[in-house]
Write a structure and sequence with these properties.
Length: 422
Amino acid sequence: MSHPVISVENLSKAYRLGHKEEVPDTITGAAKNILMAPWRNFRHLRSHSITDAEGGEDDTLWALKDVSFEINQGDVVGIIGRNGAGKSTLLKVLSRITEPTSGRAVIRGRVSSLLEVGTGFHPELSGRDNIYMNGTILGMTKREIDRKFDEIVDFSGVEKFLDTPTKRYSSGMQVRLAFAVAAHLEPEILIVDEVLAVGDFDFQEKCLRKMQDVSSSGRTVIFVSHNLAAIGTLCSRAIVLSKGAIQASGTVSDSIEEYLSGSRTKISGHSVRCGEKQVFVVSSEEREIHRKCEEALSFKLQFQTPDPIENPSCGFIIYDKSNAPVVGGSSKFQRQSSGGCSNTWKLTCDLGHLPLSPGNYTVSIWLGTLNHDLAKAANFFDITIDDTDPFNCGFAVPKSWGNLFWRGNWHFEADSIAAAQK
Ligand SMILES: Nc1ncnc2c1ncn2[C@@H]1O[C@H](COP(=O)(O)OP(=O)(O)OP(=O)(O)O)[C@@H](O)[C@H]1O
């Protein structure tokens, strides 16, 4: 049976605003940090009591506030949250790069982490020396590192620069080597912060595959990313952080749903499962569209797919309150798509001046390619048409007309011949 390898209890981390904490950018610095921790904590307690005595903590920012969770051996856990939610701070505490202000994180196993660019490398040492230094810190013998060395170099693609100090590497090269080192040195727990933001598509793919390999060999992976589709593909569960606290924790699908629904920017979203572990994330800019009759109607979607797709297509059906379809359309039937290949797409669908009668409607959407279905989402967003007198004539459109009203061109002519014959 799997047992907890990480137990986080009431973990909090405060930063003083305007007093940027020095975060070590090398493993040696991190080791020094750990040795200095008791002294810093003592200083922190003193400064806290001084601040309290002065009656204010206004300059304190809680990057993490009372966070508790457990992670079992073999779990692959995604950490998601908006910018500034505390994700990187949590990973830094788990990697012992920074000390918590209160609470604790108990880690059982050898941790290897890929945090911010440059963390974990000594800038003056060559790529080669950094590989050996990291392996040694992880408790590996020289022979063990020798065995992994070629694989690391091959994965990172920095062979030509192995004897160059890493401070001369581009940020992309540093991340490539750092990920290769972190993932190949057989850690029991692999912690990775947003590796997918750097590097080209092939490298991102390679990283995801490597993390999958690490997890399938029973190791624990903790992975921070803003790429929700990648989190869905890789992780078995997810934790959502919001303003330093846990907003949700559970299955990836539920957590992503919760994350998208809690958005301050009013982005609504659905994560739709297709296949075993694949999560397809779709978000719309508005959850409720309010329009006047015949006012131009459009909707915008963003979607991420686990694998890149070509020629995406979108369809929609608008339903009335009794769930009867009113009208639908599809870019596939109109053979309108986009060239290119990507796993992140933005779409604007312009419906023009659709003459919907006043009332409430729901919209379901379909996404796919010209040849395949990818996902369907019912009740994706609502449309409310909220004026009752589109003709501006003092009469409401009767419900009995149905869900569409029509603005025809009416030509009346007095039929004078017929009138004369009477
Ligand atoms: N070394 C530091 N000194 C002072 N404040 C910090 C420090 N590191 C982080 N913070 C603050 O703590 C909060 C949480 O930051 P953190 O980097 O953990 O967020 P995040 O969720 O990783 O964000 P992002 O998605 O943008 O990377 C932010 O308000 C940030 O400004």
